[in-house]
Specification:
heterodimer; A: alpha+beta; 3 strands; 15% strand; B: 910 residues; alpha+beta; 10-stranded mixed beta sheet; 6-stranded mixed β-barrel; globular; ABC3_permease_C (chain B); membrane (chain B); Macrolide_Exporter_MacB (chain B); ADOP family duplicated permease (chain B)
């Protein structure tokens, strides 16, 4: 991701991670894949941001983690949303929608 | 949560690191796999993956940051550095730790006292919305009285104001069996069944009382034991269900009160609780009688009702109450905070004394802590000045100011932690000593004393709080000052201080200002302590109005015999006669009571024309409540009670039960009843029926006025009246014996009384002086004296140590300057004089400010001090002189040492 895009996405790391865990529990690699799947040219999350963010969200009680076996028989640490995480995600999504809606209006108006 | 997780990760660091590594490797392998799938060779794919990952170690470091591990690691490093730094200066560390320990221990002890005496009882009462109910009356002689049981019942019916009403009364009676082995005079509480429920307690074991048991005159002999009583009995397993003899009646113990429960009192309580239905056996009264006023009610306000709202409804409650019980009663009902000061009183107790005392104690101890902190701050400044160069170098190398301040604060925190630990140990020792003193004294008193565990969670938290306060107050100022950016000057500074040395020598340097503040606070503290000690000394040596020396008192309790009043009178007369034969006619006297004893005997005294002087609104005759004592002949001489007017009882009056009705009154009662008029020959009535009969033959003639014997350290003695013992024999008799060595005489007295009176239990044989020494008020005074004396001494030690430490340091850093002055011809005496003059100038400024503070403290203390605070100016001057001398010595000693240094040696070493 270019620097310009990176600055646009600043402050959305938590939203990205929480959203990626909405449907199922994932390991760190899985989270990164999920985000890149959407549009690998726009949304990428560096490991240097991903793992500290996972620690922070865990400390806030928004996600939980546990070690499980993958389909390939490897051990991996899976992350999932806690009830508080789901609430936070709903709030962040609502905020983001309002923000992007206003931004769209502003851009279109211009 | 974050701190908890950080700590958990710190302690499980190896596992957490391994898991992090595994997680990263997992991610990297998937990334590598993706590059392999894109066609790269495995090695190239691995390199590409590593490139994309952006450095595993960096990512791990960022994760560790997110864990908070770095902060903890930094703190651990700071602590390690602080330990090394303090170990390098053991002298400074020891002084700082002891200084803080003194300040912290004083505050911990005070906190524990305030917690026990004020905070916990208040919290308990507030939480349950409890109020005490009183009656007031407009007529002047006695505004308050107890309630009858029917009145308490009627109060309980006022459910729109009171959710629950309980009643209680206390008495001192004989508990136990045997003649004097296990038989003791102890306090017994008699309570309605709702009393415990109202105070929110559940039994430690067994049960409390049922409504049936507490119904007036129910006569169901059950008892609940105080926890301490059960402990003293050895905590037998079959305690519940066992019997205890109270006033020769066997009571089955049905429960044990919870540990520390003393009813409404904050520190002393009864040994046994009996249901109200048993009260008539203990105090010989009919609790069904609406005119028998003996009970104190305590109530819980209706849910949601505030005390103010309840007060607004009280007039209606008053009307309802008297309509049901006493239609002619003119008293108003009042509610107030339940008293926690005494076991019982017939009027609202003023809790403000306790509150004020607690506030002042905490205030004074807080000043000690502040002085200790100022002391430490100054020591830190002095020590920091020597480290100024090191700090400047660290700043110039890029260390942030915050980082260095944190390091300095950590050092002080470590000191405060050590000081706090030592302080806690010290305060535990002081507390143990005080408890031991109190326990010894209470062992012979009539109360159960609640010894609470001193080091509990609250005390530990409070000590930690004091330590944190000490850290902040003493470290922040010096730390900020020492890290003030003035790098070039500081790097150039010599190890001895150089540029800074002259700065610290300046009169208005921070260091000197701290010395001034310390002197000012210390003077205020010393003066306050001197005021307290003066007051304590006065109380201790106040004229008691009687002479307890060379007196043995033996207590014979006839109430627990089957004898009637006539038999008791005859026995007592025989005992008195025999004792006089044995010890001499003028060495023995008897009385119904003694000063400094738990005494509830009061009588209403009506002057002859009391009806004529009745309250115009209520028609109530004029009367005065007075302590009532019946005495044998020779009593006043034996106790050395001075006769001010008239005479005491003659032989006929002292021996003839049908003799003339005469009384001796004390000067208080004489003033109350007759003002300036001569009381001798005046007549008075001792009960209302006699007064109403108008028969003057039923009145008593005042034949003498004596000095009022003081029977309490704090208060003025109550008005008192004496009658011949034969005219009103007391079933509870105190035998006074004059003996040159009271302690040595005890076994003989005990043996003699055992032989002479085998029927009545001999409850105590003690020197009269021990009653005075072990009275609650005397103990309070002694403890106050000890505490405030210690506070003053600690303040003085801290002030001297602080001033000496700083001055010695300042002067040591001026050694070079002093050496030069001596080298160019200044005389050592002149140098010393100049340094001492500077020190005394600081002391003068400190003392001037301190005088103002001390004056303010004196104004506040004057409202609560006992008598004997005259000579305040002298005390103030004395305190100032003590401090000035201390400052002089603290300056003179190091100055003299510096002036003795050989200038040549000093200059060469430079």
């Amino acid at each position: 991701m270019s620097k310009k895009k990176n600055s646009l996405l600043q402050g959305t790391v938590d939203l990205l991670i929480l959203s990626s865990l909405r449907t199922e529990d994932r390991h760190g690699w899985g989270i990164q894949q999920r985000i890149e799947q959407l549009d690998s040219h726009v949304l990428t999350l560096k490991q240097g941001s991903l793992y500290p963010a996972l620690v922070r969200l865990g400390d806030q009680g928004l996600i939980h983690s546990e070690w499980r076996m993958t389909e390939n028989g490897r051990r991996a640490k899976y992350y999932g949303l806690t009830p508080a995480g789901r609430e936070r995600l709903a709030e962040e999504v609502a905020q983001w929608r309002a923000f992007s809606s206003d931004l769209n209006l502003l851009i279109e108006g211009a | 949560m974050k701190l908890f997780n950080a700590l958990a990760r710190l302690f499980g660091r190896r596992r957490v690191e391994a898991e992090m590594d595994e997680e990263m490797q997992f991610h990297l392998e998937h990334l590598t796999e993706r590059y392999v799938n894109r066609g790269l060779a495995p090695a190239a794919a691995r390199r590409a993956a590593l490139r994309e990952f952006g450095g595993i170690d960096q990512t791990k470091e960022e994760v560790r940051d997110a864990w908070g591990a770095r902060l903890l690691q930094d703190l651990a490093r700071d602590l390690r550095y602080a330990v090394l730094s303090l170990r390098r200066t053991p002298g400074f560390t020891a002084i700082a730790v002891v200084t803080l320990a003194l300040g912290i221990s004083v505050n911990t002890v005070m906190f524990a006292f305030v917690r026990d005496a004020v905070l916990q009882p208040l919290a308990r009462n507030d939480a349950r919305n409890l109020v005490a109910v009183y009656t007031s009356r407009a007529d002047a002689d006695r505004g308050w009285r107890y309630f009858s049981y029917p009145e308490v019942e009627a109060l309980a019916e006022q459910t729109d104001v009171f959710a629950n009403v309980a009643a209680y009364t206390f008495d001192v009676t004989a508990i136990g069996t045997g003649r004097d082995q296990n038989l003791q005079r102890r306090v017994v509480g008699m309570v309605s069944h709702s009393y415990f429920d109202l105070l929110g307690v559940t039994p430690h074991a067994g049960r409390f009382f049922s409504p049936d048991e507490s119904r007036p005159n129910a006569s169901i002999p059950v008892a609940v034991a105080d926890y301490g009583y059960w402990e003293r009995a050895g905590q037998p397993a079959n305690f519940i269900g066992s019997t205890v003899r109270v006033k020769q009646r066997d009571y089955t113990i049905v429960g044990i009160a919870p540990r520390g429960f003393l009813g409404l009192s904050s520190s002393v309580g009864p040994d046994l609780w009996l249901p109200l239905g048993e009260a008539h056996h203990i105090v010989d009264g009919d609790f069904d009688n609406p005119n028998y006023h003996r009970l104190s009610p305590i109530a819980q306000l209706a849910p949601g009702l505030s005390a103010e709202a309840a007060r607004a409804r009280l007039p209606a409650v008053t009307q309802n109450l008297w309509n049901q019980t006493a239609p002619n009663e003119d008293r108003q009902l009042l509610i107030g905070a339940p008293s926690t000061n005494d076991l019982q009183d017939d009027q609202p107790n003023d809790e403000s004394f306790m509150g004020l005392f607690a506030t002042l104690s905490l205030g004074l101890s807080a000043v000690v802590l502040v002085v200790a902190c100022l002391n430490l701050a100054n020591l830190l400044l002095a020590r920091g000045a020597a480290r100024r160069k090191e700090i400047a170098v660290r700043l110039s190398l890029g260390a942030s100011r915050f980082r260095i301040v944190r390091q300095l604060v950590t050092e002080t925190f470590l000191l405060a932690l050590m000081g706090g630990t030592l302080g806690l140990l010290l305060s535990t020792w002081v507390d143990h000593m005080l408890m031991q003193l109190s326990a010894d004294a209470f062992a012979v008193s009539q109360f159960s004393f609640n010894v609470r565990p001193f080091v509990d969670t609250t005390t530990l938290l409070a000590t930690l709080g004091f330590s944190a306060f000490a850290t902040l107050v003493s470290s922040l100022g010096p730390a900020l000052r020492l890290t003030r950016p003035s790098l070039i000057t500081d790097i150039k500074a010599t190890p001895e201080g150089g540029a800074d040395a002259s700065r610290s020598g300046r009169f208005f340097s921070l260091s000197n200002l701290l010395v001034v503040a310390q002197i000012a606070c210390s003077l205020a503290l010393l003066f306050s302590a001197a005021l307290f000690l003066g007051s304590v000394r006065h109380a201790r040596h106040a004229d008691r109005g009687f002479d307890p020396a060379q007196q043995v008192v033996a207590n014979l309790d006839y109430r627990i015999t089957d004898m009637d009043t006539e038999q008791i009178a005859a026995r007592q007369q025989t005992v008195l006669t025999r004792l006089r034969e044995r010890y001499g006619a003028d060495a023995v006297a008897t009385a119904s009571n003694i000063p400094y004893n738990f005494d509830l005997s009061r009588r209403s005294v009506y002057p002859l024309d009391a009806l004529a002087q009745a309250n115009p609104e209520t028609g109530e005759p004029r009367r005065q409540r007075a302590g009532y004592t019946t005495v044998s002949g020779g009593y006043f001489d034996l106790l050395d009670i001075q006769v001010l007017r008239g005479r005491t009882f003659n032989a006929t009056e002292s021996t003839d039960p049908a003799g003339p009705r005469v009384v001796v009154i004390d000067q208080q009662l004489a003033t109350f009843l007759y003002g300036d008029a001569d009381p001798i020959g005046q007549r008075l009535y001792l009960d209302k029926e006699a007064l109403n009969s108008g028969d003057t033959r039923l009145s008593h003639e005042v034949i003498g006025v004596v000095r009022s014997p003081r029977d309490h350290v704090f208060n003025e003695p109550p008005a008192r009246l004496y009658r011949p013992l034969v005219q009103d024999p007391s079933p509870n008799l105190f035998v006074h014996l004059r003996q040159p060595d009271p302690i040595a005489a005890l076994p003989d007295v005990r043996r003699t009384l055992d032989e002479l009176e085998p029927l009545a239990p001999l409850l105590a044989v003690r020197p009269l002086a021990s009653y005075v020494e072990q009275h609650l008020s005397t103990l309070v005074i002694e403890i106050c004296g000890l505490v405030f004396g210690l506070l003053g001494a600690i303040a003085l030690v801290l002030a001297v140590a602080g001033v000496y430490g700083v001055k010695a340091h300042q002067i040591a850093r001026r050694t070079r300057e002093i050496g030069i002055r001596l080298a160019i011809g200044a005389s050592p005496r002149r140098v010393v004089r100049q340094i001492v003059r500077q020190g005394l100038a600081q002391a003068a400024v400190g003392l001037a400010i301190g005088l103002g503070l001390a004056f303010l403290a004196g104004q506040v203390l004057a409202s609560m001090l006992l008598q004997g605070t005259s000579g305040q100016s002298l005390m103030l001057l004395g305190s100032a002189a003590v401090l000035a001398t201390a400052v002089f010595l603290a300056t003179w000693i190091p100055a003299r040492r510096a002036a003795r240094v050989d200038p040549a040696v000093t200059l060469k070493s430079e």
